[in-house]
Amino acid sequence: MNHNLTWHNMDITKSLREEQMGQKACTIWMSGLSGAGKSTIANALEKRLYAMGKKTILLDGDNVRMGLNSNLGFSDKDRIENIRRIAEVAKLMNDAGLIVITAFISPYRQDRRNAKRIIGEDFREVYVSTSIEECERRDVKGLYKAAREGKIDSFTGISSPYEIPENPDVIIDTEKMGVEECVDQILIQLHPIFEKSE
Amino acid sequence: MNHNLTWHNMDITKSLREEQMGQKACTIWMSGLSGAGKSTIANALEKRLYAMGKKTILLDGDNVRMGLNSNLGFSDKDRIENIRRIAEVAKLMNDAGLIVITAFISPYRQDRRNAKRIIGEDFREVYVSTSIEECERRDVKGLYKAAREGKIDSFTGISSPYEIPENPDVIIDTEKMGVEECVDQILIQLHPIFEKSE
Fold this sequence. Notes:
Chain A is of the alpha/beta class.
């Protein structure tokens, strides 16, 4: 460590943490329809980053909706607050030096813009562009069927809009590529972040 | 890395992250009156842990009240929600493998009990026991004077209770020890956590 002369006179900053972890912090914000493959790709991406020695955390419905955002519903107001809290947590985790991967539908441009504003320069948007037809064909959780039958209100892509990202950093087409190829694409296109010397 | 045979078939778990970071995750929850020295000790503790190669994050009023909890006031309901969100974020950060230090007055046993319930076995309570007389004498921010003059409602220790931790893991007396001694005490008394082999 080469901080002996200075570290004890200052707070531990984000850049000190990044240096210690040998990486550049960032938030990889994955957006796309239900069933598009966000969680699958996010998981595979995290495994790959782990194997590269990177320190990561994955925020998704499993660990956020059950905990931090368990007191939020699906009203417009709660939907906005849901994304805001996720972005604020991602920012804190970036400050801790971590690479954060988020996997939420996040269908509205305004909400994603707000997330970008909160997270700042560490924000990277990945659009998982799987078409509604393909998502509905897969329908892993049976949600599209239920939405078509009117059993789910405001279901993104059916009865509620999905606003396509206007200028994402990466577009991933799961209809043309396998999971590992999708991960390759993300790593290649965001590579200046991951190449930070250790 | 000795996970080559298994890691690609499983998600990246908390224990894998801890192993990668060479540490045991935990949340060091510091409680005490305004001016007790929580933030000063938390900062010094974080610097010491950094020098030991540990990966940490400090949650305090500066980075939480301005961001994640910026939409909360000081009503009973908001106070409970404030501590709940901090605990949920600490838990997520523990899942990421980090050592989390929190520095909030957190005056109510019920709230701290709730934090412990959320965070689980990683929770460690540190009571910064500086007396009200000493905090008021120091009055670094002039808040006690303002509270005595009735300019601040529900000020902990003056017009609102501070419920002393019943069974904290560490008690720190800043009236008898300097900052570095306080840090020594925390490191010694929580040492099984920090000794985890790298």
